[in-house]
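Section 5: illustrative case.
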């Protein structure tokens, strides 16, 4: 990941940039990373940003999960401290999209800032 991110550390303005982690095997397949695996990867990205940009940038930047997010898996993914939102594909075309938005909104409201 560090190799991929080397060229962007200096560009990470949290007011303008959102990072998305999407396991390629999960995009449009119905397969989703487990909450634990997604959290570990998001934390790894945030730790790299803290080390190579700054702690304040790492704290403030949004890191979203993409890859078959849906109403069923959104609550558990949303509960992970380093998952700040979703990049929703197929489920954005279905009524369940509202449930995904509700899940992430409620989870983040319940977590410390
Ligand atoms: O833009 C959406 C992402 O590529 C994920 O799509 P998906 O939710 O259909 O897997």
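Designed sequence:
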């Amino acid at each position: 990941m560090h190799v991929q991110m080397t060229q962007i550390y200096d560009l990470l303005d949290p007011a303008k940039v959102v990072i998305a982690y999407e396991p390629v095997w999960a995009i449009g397949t119905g397969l989703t990373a487990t909450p634990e695996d997604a959290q570990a990867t998001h934390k790894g990205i945030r730790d790299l940003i803290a080390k190579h940009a700054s702690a304040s940038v790492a704290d403030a930047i949004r890191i979203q999960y993409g890859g078959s997010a849906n109403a069923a898996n959104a609550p558990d993914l949303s509960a992970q401290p380093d998952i700040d939102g979703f990049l929703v594909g197929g489920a954005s075309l279905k009524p369940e999209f509202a449930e995904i938005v509700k899940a992430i909104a409620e989870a983040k409201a319940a977590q410390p800032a």
